[in-house]
Amino acid sequence: MAASAVSNPSQLLPLELVDKCIGSRIHIVMKSDKEIVGTLLGFDDFPLSLVLCSYLPFLIFSEITPEGRRITKLDQILLNGNNITMLVPGGEGPEV
Amino acid sequence: GGGGGGGGGAGKMADKEKKKKESILDLSKYIDKTIRVKFQGGREASGVLKGFDPLLNLVLDGTIEYMRDPDDQFKLTEDTRQLGLVVCRGTSVVLICPQDGMEAIPNPFIQQQDG
Asked: Where is the Sm domain (chain A) (predicted)?
């Protein structure tokens, strides 16, 4: 963790927000047309390289294919953070 | 040891040179302002900047995401959705600008037909 990150103490640090989301629902948007909605179990600190989502209460993996939107239900997933674009705490995910 | 992790390596280098990690972009002037962010992969979003870190991870509030369809090039209002409070991954960010600092213009590169 960079020691010089405290430039403005009243701002909200991104990793703090992700940390607060542990144990609750999170919606993850990838660079491509893939999205995941599930419960955040934990994440790797630097540089947010791994995200673990569990099935409680559900884990949905949504992707856009040439045929349309395909939804897969999974139990647990270990997600590589390389392709993550956005994380939405408490997000509902794409409209089904 | 040469097999140290990437995170540990960066930290050790900073200690050795006693150099503060300065960002070339001072995002603190954008705090509480609406910014537009473009990502690798073609996604775009805009929102109020609430926080950031040196790795360029961002916290945006009231986020609107714009998605690009393959058949309509780029239309702002076609596919948008409200995301609310989001964290944007710094490694995916390619552009940051103030929301009111840009406007759409007609394509200047279309060749004009003479006559």
From this structure: 13-93
CB A47 within 8 A of CB A81: yes
* Residues above pLDDT 70, as percent of chain B: 69
The DSSP secondary structure of B66-112, one letter per residue, reads E---TTSS--TTTSEEEEEEEEE-GGGEEEEEEGGG------TTSPP
Give the tokens for residue B96.
């940051």
Chain A touched by B7 (CB under 8 Å) = yes
Put simply, the answer to whether B52 touches A11 (Cβ < 8 Å) is yes
A2 falls within a domain: no
* Cα A84 from Cα B92, distance rounded (Å): 7
* Partners of residue A87 in chain B, C-beta under 8 Å: 86-87, 89
pTM tops 0.80, yes or no: no
When pLDDT is cut at 50, 70 and 90, the band that residue B62 belongs to is very high
* Residue A1, domain member (yes or no): no
Task: For residue A90, give the chain B residue with the closest CA.
Answer: B85
CATH number of the domain enclosing B67:
2.30.30.100
Expressed as residue numbers, the domain containing A39 is: 19-89
Residue A69: closest CA among A28, A35, A31, A37: A35
pLDDT digits 0-9 by tens, A61-96: 878 777 778 888 878 888 888 889 999 998 877 665
Q: For chain B, how many structural domains are there in total?
A: 1
